[in-house]
Amino acid sequence: MLCVTVSFAGELRDHLDRATRDGVVRLTLELPAGLRDVVQSLGVPHVECGEVTVNGEAKPWSSNVADGDEISVRARYPLGSPRLDPRFLLDDHLGKLARHLRMLGFDADHEVGADDSDLARRSVAEARMLLTRDRGLLMRAVLRDGRFIRSVEPTDQAIEVVRSFALATVVQPLTRCLECNELLSAASREEVADRVPASAAVRHDRFGLCPTCRRVYWEGTHVDDLRERIRLILEGAGS
Ligand SMILES: [Zn+2]
User: Fold this and answer.
1) Is 62 within 8 Å of 35 (Cβ atoms)?
2) Which of 88, 178, 186, 225 has its CA 20 to 30 A from that of 155?
3) pLDDT tens digits, 106-134
């Protein structure tokens, strides 16, 4: 029998049972176990962890724990400086969050109907941060980058992502198609004349065109709503 103590820092404590929200868990193990299994058995996905030390020494996930070990786990998020050129992959249930992230200009791929293996494989192969509300999915050893989305409401979820990855200063609002995640290209009034209402064609001379679905975006009243939502997200992330 092995007895170990595991201390979790910062927001990793969100994953712990109420009784251990001070971040310290004393654990008795029947059998020898690996470091990653011990940490994840407490509900904390390895992809959210920063440096892990055992008795004060940094250790890789492949290490085994020994009787009396004092394990200390730092939180990887929130980042201190912006994650540059972030690329996300969102699971089936986070479609609205995907649209919010696209509205902010971030590459946010949203896969409908994909199973967990596909999501994990794509996250690794395409170096996309996997965003999900499924802790079990994030515990797959193959994953390198991901985060459990704590909030339920899409605007709060967007605030959470912007804050975690320090993205407030690198947003590029309204540069991406909300439907298919493609970057918009600039289009002239003549190019889009048959795709926008006559009133918009008269009033505006700059348009954004999605190369995939051919949707056209312009500075109409609906854009004021989007800009207000962006303002709320950035304000929320800064508070
Ligand atoms: Zn599109």
Assistant:
1) yes
2) 186
3) 999 998 899 999 999 999 999 999 999 99
Q: In angstroms, what is the span from residue 166 Cα to ligand 1's centroid?
A: 27
Is 82 within the bounds of a domain?
Answer: no
- The domain tally of the chain equals 2
My answer on whether 181 and 119 are in the same domain is yes
CA 17 to centroid of ligand 1, rounded, Å: 42
Ligand 1 mean position, distance from CA 211 (Å): 7
Q: How close is the Cα of 102 to the center of ligand 1, in Å?
A: 11
Asked whether residue 80 is domain-assigned, the answer is no
Question: Is residue 221 helix, strand or coil?
Answer: helix
Q: Residue 31 carries which DSSP code?
A: S
d(CA 40, CA 37): 5
Mean pLDDT on 147-169: 97
Decide if 96 contacts 68 (C-beta within 8 A): no
Measure 176 CA to ligand 1 centroid, in angstroms: 8
The answer to the question of residue 197 being in a domain is yes
pTM score above 0.85: yes
Domain encompassing residue 40: 2-75
- Report the pLDDT averaged over residues 42-58: 98
Going from the Cα of 184 to the center of ligand 1, the distance in angstroms, rounded, reads 8
